[in-house]
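#lab-general

N.A. 3:47 PM
ok so I finally got the sequence cleaned up, no stray characters, all 254 residues accounted for. can someone with queue access submit it? mine expired

B.Y. 3:52 PM
send it over

N.A. 3:53 PM
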Amino acid sequence: MPTPRVEIIGVEGIPIVKKEDNLPQLILDALEKQGIELLDGDILVVCQSVVSRAEGRVRKLADVKPSVAAEALAEQINKDPRLVELVLSEAKYVLRATKEALITRTRLGWICANSGVDLSNVDGGESASLLPIDPDKSARVIRDYVAEKTGKRVAVVITDTFGRPHREGQVNVAIGVAGMKPIWDRRGEKDLFGYTLRVKQIAVADEIAAAAELVMGNSSEGIPVAIVRGYRYIPDDEASSSTLKRPLKRELFI
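B.Y. 4:20 PM
back already:
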């Protein structure tokens, strides 16, 4: 049996993505220039910022008119009221408001800082990117396009950077998934000593996202896409990132 091995390949040469650009084709063009051929079973990891730009999910702060609620909250936490307005527009509700961040549950169901609204890697702070409307759909579009053009069956993971309860630093996580089960459910298996696993569910989509970030870095480094090769994921044509969202009734940290 071959030694288990996973390879991460950065996709370089993708230009600054603009609204209505054909992102899947830009990825394929960059792969061709690098002389990289996709293989069946590869995982394409794509950072959220390029997906949002391609889908027109960028707002100029000058065009944002803050609501009364945004003005009041912005004064309380000393933030730009236009940014606060965007955060509130993307939130189901606010969990905590501090001078560091607004912690919200987004309309997509994620709990994160500032509803995923980000000023970095857009245009120098004059605009903000919002999360894609439907990251799972965005992932499926990329996967289907790649399959049509190359004949290869790949999985796609769209990522964003989240903080974590009780731990410093941020890490890439999956917010959109296509073609693979996001969680490897190992409950019921036996460990090395015969003990039956009862709670073992591995968030493999998040682990793939985090691993890819080691090569991609921040999108300012010009590598917004990576290929993860060699990991044998569980294929799933109906995959959704929703399985990674913990229901409120089981939430431990809010």
